[in-house]
C-alpha cells in the first residue's frame, strides 16, 4: 500500500474511532465546556511499539458527543453509554490501533514482520467522582485477530490558568499472549535475521504511562489542543530482544491540532 493510501485509510478510521490512548472521553479538550471539537493536526509517535525512532502522522481531530449516549474522539475512541448513571457510565467501546509498515521499521524492514492496522471492539466502565476526576477500565479484542487488551486509567483536570485548560491521565495497559507476540515476539526466522534469540512472550502488563493534555483558546471558536505522553514498557514487552536490541522501553508520544469549537 502506498504512503498516501496508508495515510488516507488511517485518517478515515481515526476520525471515527480514535488514534491515541484507549480511554473514555475525559481529556482536557473534553473539559472545554462540553464543546464539540473538529479540526486537524499531527501525531508524533514511535515508529513501532518499542521503537527508538519516531514518525509523524497527519490526522483529523474529533471530540464530539452525539446525543446523550455516543461519543467520538480521536483521543479516546468511540463509546456508547448503556448505563447513563449520575456517576457510573459503561457500555460499548471501539478504537483504532496503529500497525507498522516496512517503511516504519526502517533497517528492520524485511527482517521483522510488518503489521496492518486493526480495529478493536469491546466494552468500558467508568466512574465520575465529579466533573474533573474519574477512573475507568476498558477491555477490547481485535475485530480481525486474536489480540485482547485491557486499559485502566485515572484522569484529573488541573486548575485552569485563565482560559487555558489542562489535565493529567495515568494509564496501565495489559495484552494477552497473541497481542504480546504480535507486537513484541520474534519467530525463529526473524530472530536469525537479527542475530538474537527467538521470543514468544505470554500475556501480561504491557506498559504504564502518564499523559498531559491541554487546550489553548485562540478566540471564540478556535483553539489549539495538544497532548504529551510518556509510557514505560513492562514485563515481556520490555524484555523483548526487539526492544532491548533495536528500540527502547521509554516511549514518548505527542500531538497537536487546530480545532473549531461548536457549542453543544
UniProtKB/TrEMBL annotation:
GO cellular component, one term: cell outer membrane
A Pfam family assignment: MipA
Presence of the UniProt keyword Protease in the record: no
InterPro entries: MipA (IPR010583)
Cleaved signal peptide residues: 1-25
Subcellular localization, as worded in the UniProt entry: Cell outer membrane
Family that this chain belongs to: Belongs to the MipA/OmpV family.
Name of the protein described by the UniProt record: Outer membrane scaffolding protein for murein synthesis, MipA/OmpV family
